[in-house]
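Entry 12.
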Amino acid sequence: MRLRPIPAVKPRSLEEALRYLEEGGRPLAGGTDLLVAIRKGQEKPELLVYVGELPELRVLRESPEGLEVGAALTHAELLVHPATERFPIL
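Predicted 3D structure (tokens):
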């Protein structure tokens, strides 16, 4: 099945990304789940909003409650971060 072209934007800030998302855009970082759903016809986004490089979504912070892992942090970045040594489940 050939996919139809889907417009995409790469916002320069979290605020800009949120505006696109409020207008119905779908966030895209790695695309693992979304692209599969698009190919299966389960998702039909009108606009893709690439959020993979937004610094606010690439964080890894340790707190007394645990780790805060940003939505766009890659597995590779997670695995080499020193804080993950204290959380072997990762």
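Annotation: Residues 58-90 form one domain. The two ends are 36 Å apart (CA to CA).
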